Amino acid sequence: MSAEIYKLLVVDDDAFMRDILEAMLTGAGYEVVMAVDGEDAWSILDSDKHDFAAVLLDRMMPRLDGMGVIARIKADKRFKDLPVIFQTATDTPVDIAEGIKAGAFYYLIKPVHEDVLFAIVESAVSTYTLSRQESIKQSQGQTDLSKVLGRCEFKLQTMMEARSLAIALSSFYPQPQRSFLGLLELLVNAVEHGNLAITYQEKSSLMKEQQWDIEISRRLNMPKYADKRVQVVLENNSLELSITITDEGDGFDCKQYFEISAERAFDPNGRGIALSKMMSFDTLEYKGKGNQVVAVVKV
User: Fold this and answer.
1) Better-predicted residue by pLDDT, 107 or 289
2) What are the φ and ψ backbone dihedral angles of 195, each rounded to 5 degrees?
3) What is the mean pLDDT of the chain?
4) Residue 280 CA to chain centroid, in angstroms?
5) 13 Cα distance to chain centroid
6) CA 143 to chain centre
7) Does residue 2 register a pLDDT over 50?
């Protein structure tokens, strides 16, 4: 995270959960404002006393629940780019899809693992700052990059490169905030699961043990993986933006990850592809043995 201190609004009627989230997020360098329910959260937002970079929102609360809060946020032009992260025990696919459709940036299932929380909050804050930069560009009359894009190709190796490229590519999309997380998810998957051959089960264990970053660095320095690259091609035909991401791995069975699974609800990973499919792209298709994915957004 950069030297700038970002402010987060955390909304939960459970005092114990508020304390946990506050401790974790302040420890990570964020400034945190707490709200005890939806009405309290809206009063804080509506006061215009704070410049929040993201909202962490419990779904089930008295007075005004999470769905009510996000409806107010998304209906107010002051907060049109403000990312809202649901964090809740409601883990059915229907409820998750409803939250995403309402405009949620992401849907965290309680209990929230610390590494997952940090990753999602950092992504949300990044897309918020990106959205603000895009708004400034538009207000200054700068060129819409999607209008001059034909085809561009990239190669990447590291997680840092994946993140930087996701930010850069999202600027070509009609809704950068929506597209960023999906792009990041697909690029990260190509690096970690594709080129570095980290399995789903291995990632779950590594994240729970807070060893994921260490293992990524270790494998990137192994001769077996050192020369592998992810190929990324973005194309625009005036009707749609298509991104093709190809890794050098052995592929995988992607079908089980296209939907939110109750069996994996409490794992710290495994929901990214399904959420990307729901919120970031119009179509998402894995090809061949599963080491190539094509994601399309209509323009």
Assistant:
1) 289
2) -70, -35
3) 84
4) 10
5) 25
6) 26
7) no
